[in-house]
Design goal:
Helices cover 69% and strands 0% of the residues. It is mostly helical.
Length: 375
């Protein structure tokens, strides 16, 4: 998620171009939506933790409001980017290092929308929260499904990539439908009973399948690149945590869907979906912990090698947050205290990662370094 990944701006044509309007927006890429995702997931995860401290929900509400404000600012800034720097915006789509980040737009909309239903309703009321989430969910889902097709299509027909260029960033456009599957159940109780609820439930399961199968296609390419070509460049090392995204989010999705299945679909499917949440979620969470250990080891290695701050640090937030919500869902459905402890421990790691990423991002914004032309 680093702005340093944008290389297309160095062509002779753009180098000789005249001064642009809104120059500060020229290098504002879609990767910036990751900061919205990382902030929103703290509110969503913190409010659903099995353990609640005094003032915790209020803190989550503040973080949700911060993520919503950041989303509004970023949507405006990105609109300015497309308005004043269309050449650079098109170059982003044709750059295999940047195009996958267009999936972050969908996930930012969905994360903030989900937070509106989880904690935002405390501030704006249930009716307004449902209306806001309906808009954000619809827009996020439509964009996510579009990017899940457009970006892989561009990778096949326009991007020139080699096996050594495979990174976990490639997962971003195909994970967005899984986020829809995880937050869609929040709207189901507010739909009319009968066909509307059942259709929404099965649509979420369909998006679960879209994302899961696409992820299973991508993961061998990513792990094969690591085995055959060695560690990622230092600045990209945090993106290893992106693999946790589809793992934690899919576990969250099956648990959330199991909660609303009894009011959406008749037996025996409602009971089967409840069993599936545990049968699927426990093994996937086990693999997520294995990958987490590998990613942490690689991150420590990169830190010792002199890894500096880049926007890729935001990859440490949202994926870990999905594991928090996944573990919390398993704690609810199994009754095991071990999953509750796991959710709490992962949430502390999430808070630490967010503080580090947010602090360095603000520092880079105030200094102008993060919006400067890539070197």
């Amino acid at each position: 998620m680093a702005t340093t990944l944008v290389r297309s701006d160095t062509t002779p044509e753009t180098a000789a171009a005249p001064a642009h309007k809104a120059p500060a927006l020229r290098h504002l890429g879609p990767n910036w939506y990751a900061s919205v995702m990382g902030t929103a997931i703290i509110a969503n995860a913190g409010a659903t933790l099995p353990y609640q401290l005094p003032g915790q929900r209020v803190a989550c509400l503040i973080l949700w409001a911060l993520s919503a404000a950041a989303l509004a600012v970023l949507l405006t800034a990105r609109a300015g980017h497309w308005l004043h720097h269309r050449d650079q915006a098109r170059a982003h789509l044709l750059d295999p290092a940047v195009a996958p980040f267009y999936g972050c737009l969908a996930m930012a909309l969905l994360a903030v929308g989900g937070g509106t239903m989880i904690v935002g309703k405390d501030l704006i009321g249930v009716l307004a929260a449902v209306a806001a989430d309906a808009v954000l969910f619809t827009a996020g889902t439509a964009i996510g499904l579009l990017m899940a097709v457009v970006v892989p299509y561009l990778m096949v027909v326009r991007h020139k990539v080699t096996p050594g260029q495979a990174t976990p960033v490639w997962l971003l456009p195909v994970v967005a439908p899984m986020v829809s599957a995880a937050v869609g159940p929040l709207l189901i109780p507010h739909l009319p009973s009968g066909q509307p609820r059942e259709a929404m439930l099965l649509a979420c399961y369909a998006m679960f399948g879209i994302s899961l199968l696409a992820t299973l296609l991508m993961l061998p390419l990513i792990f094969g690149r690591l085995i055959m070509h060695g560690p990622l460049p230092l600045a990209l090392t945090p993106t290893l945590f992106l693999v946790l995204g589809p793992l934690g989010q899919s576990t969250t999705a099956v648990n959330q869907l199991a909660d609303v299945a009894p009011q959406s679909i008749a037996a025996p499917y409602a009971g089967a979906f409840g069993a599936f949440a545990v049968v699927y979620g426990v093994p996937v969470m086990g693999f997520a912990l294995l990958w987490l250990a590998l990613a942490v080891a690689m991150l420590v290695r990169a830190a010792r090698g002199g890894m500096g701050f880049a926007m890729t640090w935001w990859a440490l937030t949202f994926p870990i947050g999905t594991c928090v919500t996944g573990a919390a869902g398993l704690a609810h459905h199994t009754g095991l205290t071990a999953f509750a402890w796991l959710a709490a421990a992962l949430f502390l790691a999430l808070l630490t990662a967010w503080v580090l990423a947010a602090t360095h991002t603000l520092r880079g914004l105030f200094s102008g370094r993060l919006l400067a032309a890539p070197r």
